[in-house]
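re: that complex we talked abt at group meeting.

here r the seqs, copy pasted straight from the sheet so there may be weird spacing, ignore it
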Amino acid sequence: MLHEPAAQSGKDPAFAYKRTLGWKMFVAYALFYAGFIVINLLKPVMMELIVIAGLNLAVVYGFALIIIALILALIYNRACSKREAELAKSEEV
Amino acid sequence: MNEILPVVLFVLFVAFVLGVSFYFAGKAKSASGYYAAGGSIHWGVNGIAFAGDYLSAASFLGICGMIATAGYDGFLYSIGYLAGWIVALFIVAEPMKRLGKYTFTDALDANFDSRGIKLLAAISTLVVSVCYLIPQMVGAGTLVTPLLGLPHYVGVILVGVIVITIVATAGMTSTTYVQFLKGSLLLIFSTVLVVALFLRGLSTTPDQGGRVPFPEYRAMAATESGGSLAVDDAQYQVVERKKAGGAEFAKLAKGGEQSWWKLVSKDGKFELVQTQWSVTGASGTTMINGAPASKKNQLALVGNLEKIDGKTGEAANTGSIGPFKFLSLIGDPDSSVVRWKEAKFSDGADKVTVYYQIHTPGNKILRPGLKFSLEGTPLERIDFVSLMIALFLGTAALPHILIRYYTVPNPAAARKSTIVAIAAIGLFYILTLFMGLGAMTGGVVNLTDSNMAAPLLARSFGTFLFSMISAIAFATVLGTVSGLIIAASGAVAHDLLDRYGKVIKNDKQKVMVGKATAFVVGFIAIGLGIIFKGVNVTFLVGLAFAVAASANLPSIVMMLFWKRTTSQGITASITIGIVSSVGLILFSPTLYALYGMDPSTAPVPLNNPGIISIPLSFATLVVVSLLSKGTQAKAVKA
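got the structure back, here u go
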């Protein structure tokens, strides 16, 4: 009896698009993350290599994992918002 | 003044937090208001509240402490915790909002209406929440001792009582604003601390801005002949020698005083290096460095650079430096960091702990390997992979994080708030590397409690920053514990009593039961926080992630992406996930050490269970779903 949504979400025609895009971007990031683990397992000494501005691969890769997560998130949001707007417009027409 | 300021800031902060709770109390009369803040929180506020919820004592105290003692290995937690948000954003955020109401059980059960799912998912929520509560409460106790001069257990009780008040008065609404406030302050003052660190620069003789003289540790030559050791300085006599933890120590006597020194032999020459030590006698009295332990006589704070780019002394002082230079100098192969290890042994009826220096080249500090032995045995390497998998997959399965998706109006807001969270949390985790390394090289590491690294680093910049950082760290605990208790309340009142047991008759009753649950869970948390005193909080949270990733994530992912998932498959997966992950943890080497047993006798050789329990949970779901004829999941529809 009490099981009703806290806030009703309307129909979302972009749902399938967002799910597919999300899955692809997840796989891309997971591969990048796996690369970090694999280097540490197979050739940990490689992490000491100086890559840029005196920073070694461990620091650069670690920061990249954080910064690329944000960049991918922004790209994902832009793509989703755009598709939501397009589909909402076509529904209005 | 110096004693009063931290207390005043702390009291003001707590008063403000409680004021917020009472202000919003009126909004928490309905179940929607109490458990989901009425679904009316703005995505920007929710995003920072996510950060406030997620950046727990483990992140702030534990990670900084682990970086301060184990270098880059502590930063692995930062990377893994942040990466987990990608799973939350791309896989979980919008479907969770679309399918759920108050708890993640709602979403999991949306296509099945299965009593088994309701029961198991609620139990899983409670198990994960309790696992996660322990390190938060331990962190609370750790903070109050230097901040207010109160014992550890008082801090735990204080947090418990305040959090119960927050949750019992206004539920998710007050919790959200406490988390928002805490998340904002944490980011601002962590940035201030890191900028102050850059302005101070690096030195081989850190004196905390002139406040504390840098302690020099002596080394004396010694000679061994016929198996007998003699100190070249005739004032000292060798009383006895002890081997422990792969090192050798000598007890020396000078006049009526005795002290423990580390014996180092190289190329046939012997050297005795000064240590710090504590001795606990049979009567329970403790001596620190030869004098009775007291508020004034504690182990000295440690950690410094021995060489910076090959230079020592005045020539090594860098003055103000930028972030890249800061990292490149610490990570330089010609730099060397003095870290400290401990060895424990018995000396007659006395229990002795000796803390001694080890010298680590900079290039080993800024790469994984000091804690996780990547060039060690296959098992040690598997342990590392296991941890990284659990961190990556755990975030999107934490019940107290998932319920925050129900506080925003729609799925798009859920998505946007996750992105704000990634930006805020990502920035904070980058700062943890600087704060941890700053503590490691700044002479502020507490030998008996690494969790205090960040607040003690702040104290090296003066009382105000220390007071603010400590008050924020305390708020960090409040924010996260509030979220966990709300999650537990929802699991009991909404999942178990309403939807599973069908004993809740109306909205008002559901809120009352939720508040009562907050009291019970709060008291359990207080007890656990006292019992687990002293264990590194990041390690404990890593385990909570493994349980969440094993028990919840396989069901969430498969329910969304595999049409043949059945309710039986989900209940079996949750059961196996909880039992296997908790079981593997209970029989792991780290827990054996905690029990006071020899870690090498632990039946499970891994400390991190994720690499076994997560695939096992996935496999169970697939096999049971294929074998069962239960309700087949409908594809998640728009």
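couple things i noticed - Chain B has 21 helices and 13 strands. The CA atoms of residues 23 and 170 of chain B lie 8 Å apart.
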